[in-house]
Amino acid sequence: MCKHILNAQVSIRSPCCRKWFDCPECHAEQESHPLLQRFEMTFACKKCKKCFRKDASEFEEADEYCPHCDNHFVLDAVTPKAAISVEGEDARIDSRMIKDERVKSNGDKITVFDPDKEADKLG
């Protein structure tokens, strides 16, 4: 799964090391050699899991789709954006983790294991 492009529809086979990557940044992070660029590229569709080749020098609008399942794989890349947010559920829906300060309990909790003051008396 690519962390650089969130909506990657295909994996691309690198011509230099013959490994599959979702984007050039993933190749640069995992390999020590530069990416070899060629016009003929081998893709693997993530929807139908089938491989196909495309020639980038003669790329047309019809080539933006998988030839097996018609999945549109040429999309505008959605990259992750840094954001600060609070993790967790909405407190209005699930309030099990919130302590209500308005209701205070006194320290006199009676359990089975606490001896009763009257238990010492016989009789």
UniProtKB/TrEMBL annotation:
Pfam families: zf-CHY. The keyword rRNA-binding does not apply. Residues 1-71 form the CHY-type domain. GO terms for molecular function: zinc ion binding. InterPro entries: Mito_Tim_assembly_helper, Znf_CHY, Znf_CHY_sf. Keywords: Metal-binding, Zinc, Zinc-finger. GO terms for biological process: protein import into mitochondrial intermembrane space. GO terms for cellular component: mitochondrial intermembrane space. PANTHER family: CHY-TYPE DOMAIN-CONTAINING PROTEIN, ZINC FINGER PROTEIN. This is CHY-type domain-containing protein.
